Amino acid sequence: MSLSLLAIGALALSTPAQAEDDRPTRELHLVTGSYGTGDRHFDFYSPNAAIGASGARLTLGLKGPWSVVAGYTRRTVVSEYFDSLVESSNEALDRDDAALIAGFTGQQVTFGPKVQLDHTPSFGTYLTAQGLAFMGTSRLDDDPTSDENRNQLKSFGWAPGFVTAVGVAYHPKVDRIPFQPSTFLEMGYNWTAQLELTDENVTQHGTNEPASLGELSFRGFYVQAGLGFQF
Amino acid sequence: MSSTPRILAALTLGVLAACNPWQREVDFYQDGEGSLWDANVVAAGDAVYVRMPRANALMRVQTDGNMSTIDLQGATPERMVATPDGEGVLVFASWQLCEDLDPKIEFVDDCPEDELVTLRELALIRGAQRAATYDVPPHLNALAFSSDGKMAVAYLDYTSNMDIEVDGLIDLGEIMFIPLEGGEPRSVSVGFSPEKVLFSTNAEGEDDKAVIFSRSEVLVVELATLETLVTYPLVLDPDQVVDPQDAVLTDNGNVALVAIDNSSDLYELDLEKYSIDLEELDAEPIAMANAMLPGINDGADAQVTLIAYADLPRVDVLDEDTLELREPFELEEPVTNMLITPTSSVMYNRQNDNAKDVYDIDLNTYEITEYRVANPLDSLQLAPGEEYAVGILRPEYDSGTDLDRYQDEHWGLAVIDLVGKQETSLVLEHEPVGVALLNRDEETYALVLMQGHEHLLQVQLSEPTFFTEVELEAPPIQIGDMVDGRFYITHDASLGMVSFLDPSTGNITTTGGFASAGLFPTNALPRQPQSAQ
């Protein structure tokens, strides 16, 4: 998907222009990566210890080796449970369809500086540290055959955090096009505070507050690759 | 191309790539580890209480749709029993404690394995509050209540191969008296393996003694002092062992009748004179129940105990005043269960597939009306007003031919009109998960829930072949009644669903979604002293 969109975008944006001698200071990348979750509760949505995510990243050059990076990634994972999650003294509850669909959508917005460690015309290494806001949406549905069943529960929470990473970037010089291809690969650590999900239907004991589903955090190593262009 | 349009076009491209507008398919197929909720709920007051095993929590779901968690101070509810007044719930709960009191230890994983212990308590819940807690030995897993509901007795209900938790040492003969209206619980040692507790009343009708049936002996404990008044040995030779199989107290509470496993002897324990008598019966009793024979003693009522046998087509009648057998009820087939009303007794057999007779015995005239149902009875209950009896018929195999065989192979519903003296055996589409009976608008209805069937059948008992269906939001699991006359229905819905049926209107209100609360429980040690948490 990302590559095809990139091609379409490149085609749409490619207008006749004079190639500039100076390297552009802006970069746009489509990114994809894998982010460690490090939270056993995330098993409910995914048996994997990491969540893959795709999105886009914009880099604006500042002064010297410094630039500022803003990114957005998003990913939904969905698990289906076939066996009933209801305890009963009846013998095995007879089911023809899934007992539960559990989906989680994570959206992450990052913003922060990037510093180029060394620089050749086409290759460089860098460090980046970015603050982030992680928004999580849980969707639970215990009758996926119906769109109108009572138990379609959605809950939302967000948490701040940060990422810090080291990366390598490659910008091959291609003459006669207004955009210079660009790619990068970075690895680092992502950390979020506890993200609390609540159930608006249920009140917590002794209060009128919504009951908590519990907390999730996303902490672990991540790897991210990007493909885009400089302009 | 200027830089601004370039940036806008590039951002549009980025948003398109990031929004991922396509519908997501299922990524993983998983097996659930632990149930989200337990459909065996307990009704108390205007709510049902729901155990949530994954969240280690207790949920209160009210008839008006309100749902709230109950604060058990971090303890995990394991079993629940409604109090006799129907307004509270006693919850057997447990929690883990780390005996290493390092303040840094906050989570179970922080605690060395050999320092981790499980503690238990019995919590009394009234409304949304934990009204009281009792320190009950961990092996006591069952409760009996005095008839006035003021006293609970915790005892060990042992089942084969059951895992009994021993912390140091335990007394397998221990029972605990728990005053539910205040006061300290107190343990009493009552022989070995006490399995049944009955309460006798004094002349004022108040419970004054507990009669405890344990292996080879019966003890009587005075409730006021919790002192053992008398111990009745059931054998003279200590090498002999007998286990009480069933016991009843006579209506005046003066005599305990005890049937013994694999014995035709009936022990008659006089609780006033502290004496034992033995009645030699013709077979081992299978069931005993108190009843009244109206006007049979020269116009006076006679209080009797009816005694049924699995192998004898007869019900003996023991006069509670004289402790002598009166004229028995002679039947065509043995019965194992008896439903007693002030004027009659409805008897049936739920153990023998070949015994399909239901007897309605007029206790005044000894007149016996016999009904024959199509399949063996799995259960039978009397409707309010006692004009109808409704039973669940279980399938039987390899019997009959053609249409008989079809009926035999299916679950069914037996409707017995005890006034019109008529029986109708109906075939059900699926296995029933519950039947409830109610009166509305001068009619009596049976509400039938079937496994996997998203409808509630309302069978009008005066015309059993006439029924209506009420659609449910999910397949039912269980039906039960509440103190205010309403019925609750639990459903097979993973995120929790309970319906409440108002019998006066037939309206059903459904509440759901409560099982998502506590989906991600912390692993914290809930009552760790000195913990920062």
Protein described:
Helix content of chain A is 5%, strand content 60%. Chain A is mainly beta. Chain A has one domain: Porin, CATH 2.40.160. The radius of gyration of chain A is 22 Å and the shape is elongated. The two termini of chain A are 22 Å apart. The longest helix of chain B has 17 residues. Chain B has a domain of 89 residues: Thrombin, subunit H. About 1% of the residues of chain B have low confidence. The termini of chain B are far apart. Chain B has a four-stranded antiparallel beta sheet, with no helix packed on it. A four-stranded antiparallel beta sheet of chain B has the order 7-8-9-10, with no helix packed on it. At the A-B interface, helix 1, strand 1, strand 2, strand 3 and strand 4 of A face helix 1, strand 1, strand 2 and strand 6 of B.
Radius of gyration of chain A: 22 Å
Shape label of chain B? globular
Characterize the largest beta sheet of chain A: strand count, sense, and whether it forms a barrel: 8 strands, antiparallel, barrel
Q: List the strand order in the largest sheet of chain B.
A: 3-4-5-6
Number of helices of chain B: 2
Mean pLDDT of chain B: 87
Query: Which CATH architecture of chain A?
Result: Beta Barrel
Question: How many beta-strand elements of chain A?
Answer: 11
Termini gap of chain A: 22 Å
Topology diagram in text:
The complex is a heterodimer of chains A (231) and B (533).
Chain A: H1 2-13, E1 26-36, E2 50-61, E3 66-81, E4 86-87, E5 100-119, E6 123-141, E7 152-170, E8 180-192, E9 195-203, E10 210-216, E11 220-230
Chain B: H1 3-19, E1 28-30, E2 37-38, E3 42-44, E4 47-52, E5 57-62, E6 67-70, E7 76-82, E8 88-98, E9 116-126, E10 129-134, E11 142-145, E12 151-155, E13 174-179, E14 186-189, E15 196-201, E16 207-214, E17 217-222, E18 227-233, E19 244-249, E20 255-260, E21 265-270, E22 275-280, E23 285-297, E24 300-309, E25 314-319, E26 325-330, E27 337-340, E28 344-348, E29 357-362, E30 368-372, E31 377-382, E32 388-393, H2 402-408, E33 412-417, E34 422-427, E35 432-440, E36 443-450, E37 455-460, E38 467-471, E39 476-481, E40 487-491, E41 497-501, E42 508-512
Antiparallel strand pairs in B: 3-4, 4-5, 5-6, 7-8, 8-9, 9-10, 11-12, 12-13, 13-14, 15-16, 16-17, 17-18, 19-20, 20-21, 21-22, 23-24, 24-25, 25-26, 27-28, 28-29, 29-30, 31-32, 32-33, 33-34, 35-36, 36-37, 37-38, 39-40, 40-41, 41-42
